[in-house]
Each structure stands twice: as C-alpha cells, then as structure tokens.
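__Protein archive entry__

___
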Amino acid sequence: MHAIQAAIVAAEQGHAGEIRFAVEAALSLHALLARASARDRALEAFARLHVWDTHDNTGVLLYLLWADRAIEIVADR
C-alpha cells in the first residue's frame, strides 16, 4: 500500500488529475444478492468517496475488487 501511495503521489505531480485508490476485499451480502459487478461497485465507490467532487472535475478512481481479481478505472468528465 505504501508503494501504491508513493506512485500516486508521484503521478499527480505530472498532471492535473486527482487519483483515488480503493480496495474491497469482498462484496457484501447485499451486493452479492444484487449481482453487483466490479464496475457497479466502482461506480458506487466513485460516488461514495466523492471522487467526482474535484475542483476541475479531474477525479480518477482506481478500484480493485480483490475477491474477483478485478480492476476498474472510473474517470470524471
């Protein structure tokens, strides 16, 4: 996690984007019953973490669903 944090900090020095990294180890029972995909969960996390609420609408979420070994990238406008 420290290496990921350092990489994000270094990357943000070279552009105007604001990067967030989120990891979910497993889905909740509700998400499983709803058959939520990794993309669905990433979009929910994007909203819940207010990644869309950046000054220049440059938020980017890197989402990892560990249980499914799935990675999603969600970017603001």
Summary: The longest strand covers residues 18-24. The chain has three helices and three strands. Residues 2-12 form the longest helix (11 residues). The CA atoms of residues 30 and 36 lie 9 Å apart.
